[in-house]
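We modelled the chain as a single entity of 145 amino acids. Its sequence is:
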Amino acid sequence: MQSVLQPILESELTFPVLECFHILGFGIGVGAIALVDFRILGLAFPAQKVSALAAELSKWTILGLVLVFLSAGGLFYSDPDLYYLNPSFQLKMTLLLAALIFHYTVRQPRAFNDDSAKWPAVVSLLLWSGIVFCGIFIAFTGEAQ
């Protein structure tokens, strides 16, 4: 039985459109997270309380992550072996899990409480940057097809 998604995945436009939504989602979600991290580090919005900025941007973080996860399913389904067996993809997924856990258990609660500790912002920026870089390197690592 042919998959319902097969005609969609055979289109030449499917992968680029999904990739655009994936990148847009990262831009929105990680961008919102980075703005709060930059505020915690004193590099942006010095007049605004961290908790107020975190509250304003939390819905953008969720929107971005929803876009990322929805588009990721289609991207993964387009060639599962390319992704599943790729060391950059495996590291990206490991960092993503770590970043999500860290964000919602350590960094976000501290931001909502105006905690002035800077280390959570640094760790957050490193984790999310690592995810983005691993995503870029998926195309350049793994076995040649």
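As a brief sanity check on the tokenised model: The mean pLDDT is 90. Residues 88 and 134 are 5 Å apart (CA to CA).
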